Predict the structure of S-adenosyl methyltransferase.
Amino acid sequence: MRPQPPTNVRDLDLEKPNAARMYDYYLGGSHNFESDRALAGQVEQVAPWVKHVAGINRAWLRRAVDFLMAQGIRQYLDLGSGIPTVGNVHEIAQRRHPDTRVVYVDYEAVAVHHSFELLRDNDNAAVVWADVRDAKAVLEHEETRRLIDFSQPVGLLCAGLLLFIGDEYDPAGLVAAYRDACAPGSYLAISTMSRDEADPRTAEQLAGLLKLYEMADERVYPRTKEEIAAWFAGTELVEPGLVPLHRWRPERSSDGDPMWTQHESSPARLLGYAALGRVL
């Protein structure tokens, strides 16, 4: 089934850089355009660790899904999933349990198109073309309802998503809207960027990155650890709690997570936090 027409999504614009396609570029993907690569190159000039940030975040997502599969979670709602590249949630999960159901949600046209092509023959995975800021539209979408049984535990994934949600959209309230739709025993997984632990040089580089991203179609909103912790209201944090991404259960990875060990001396390791919370 093809994605249904959305009410608040982004049309394809090849001339304007796009954050999702830039992330794909940082991860070594091929679903990006010259405008994306040009701005990404400028970002790398001012913040040479930016690819490390992308790799560390992707490695954390793999570890998080591995953990959730071990807890018996067999359905996932991946918000702001971006462009499909190596290590997608459905690939990780269905390799362990083929009947695992996954719904991806994004509003960027290239991400949705390539996700649909990737999932064309996969009855247990789908993409919803929608703006995650409209929780009601996402939760009530026919594909979400087809694959996700909200009376059973769900893995709710927000990997890097809230970095692009401004305060005017009440990120805590948005998380709560999705969390409240999930049954007790579900898990909320969040990763996002912070400058709390950045040294002065890295903080200056991050400021340069933020200015450049304003040229793209997204603004970037680093948060404090306290702000991020508040998003986990109504859950019980899984050990080791809210920590830098590379410190979240690195020993649990099925593949050793070369992404973060390769960059363990990079400033990128101090630029984000992640946690999983079990919904009470």
